[in-house]
């Protein structure tokens, strides 16, 4: 069973939603027959890291909302994350462009390390406070998941894999993605947002029954 996920490394609901999916898969009888593929999506394409500004300040300015409102929204996300078993620390997290990281992610996919890359970059952003637009940071994190740092440096110094990122985003529009996370099961069944574990369990069972059981 193929599951395609459009996501971004700085998307809290992606981090949370994928934790819910993982929990559902742990109980799924056919989990060993599930193949997950990530696709690039730029949640905040104009995001820029501003040194000295905390996450709430940057988020407030980007969204054009009062600082206190931004803090309230972020606190709600943290509470949701805590209930989902993932760690989001906005005291450490730094808002930044993820475009170059996505180009390197596309390279990671060619090396069979796309899923590991996504997991590492989620943690780097949400729990470790890494700046995901920083070239040295991208290289170090990429090496941690097993990629060739020299090759990653070449990618960052060029426009390599730009076309693949653009293609993923274009495909997202084609299938009706208006926000992430967006999950597509066997290129047919779509689930949007950080749905509860029970919802993913129901979808997994339904897709298996309709797509696989009936064919046997």
How would you sum up this structure, described in words?
There is one protein chain. The protein has 216 residues and is α+β, with helices and mostly antiparallel strands. The chain has a single domain, classed as Glutaredoxin, CATH 3.40.30. The protein is built from 9 helices and 4 strands. Strands 2-1-3-4 form a 4-stranded mixed β-sheet, with helices on both faces. A hairpin with a 3-residue loop joins β3 and β4. The radius of gyration is 18 Å and the shape is globular. The mean pLDDT is 95.
Secondary structure layout:
Blueprint: E1 2-7, H1 12-27, E2 35-40, H2 55-63, H3 67-84, H4 99-110, H5 114-126, H6 135-144, H7 149-156, H8 162-174, E3 182-185, E4 189-192, H9 197-211
Parallel strand pairs: 1-2
Antiparallel strand pairs: 1-3, 3-4
Helix pairs in contact: 1-3, 1-9, 2-3, 4-5, 6-7
């Amino acid at each position: 069973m193929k599951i395609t996920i459009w996501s971004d490394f700085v998307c809290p609901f992606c981090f949370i939603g994928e934790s819910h999916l993982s929990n559902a898969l742990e109980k799924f009888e056919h989990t060993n027959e599930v193949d997950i593929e990530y696709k690039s999506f730029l949640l905040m394409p104009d995001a820029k890291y501003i040194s000295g500004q905390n996450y709430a300040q940057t988020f407030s300015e980007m969204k054009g909302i009062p600082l206190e409102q931004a803090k309230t929204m972020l606190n709600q996300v943290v509470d949701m994350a805590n209930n989902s078993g993932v760690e989001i620390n906005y005291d450490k997290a730094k808002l930044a462009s993820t475009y170059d990281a996505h180009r390197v992610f596309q390279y990671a996919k060619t090396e069979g390390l796309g899923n590991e890359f996504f997991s590492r970059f989620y943690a780097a952003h949400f729990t470790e406070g890494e700046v995901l637009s920083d070239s040295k940071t991208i290289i170090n994190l990429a090496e941690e998941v097993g990629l060739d740092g020299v090759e990653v440096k070449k990618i960052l110094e060029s426009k390599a894999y730009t076309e693949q990122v653009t293609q993923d985003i274009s495909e997202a529009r084609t299938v009706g993605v208006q926000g992430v996370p967006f999950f597509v099961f066997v290129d047919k069944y779509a689930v949007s947002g950080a749905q509860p574990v029970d919802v993913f369990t129901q979808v997994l069972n339904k897709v298996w029954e309709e797509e696989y059981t009936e064919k046997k």
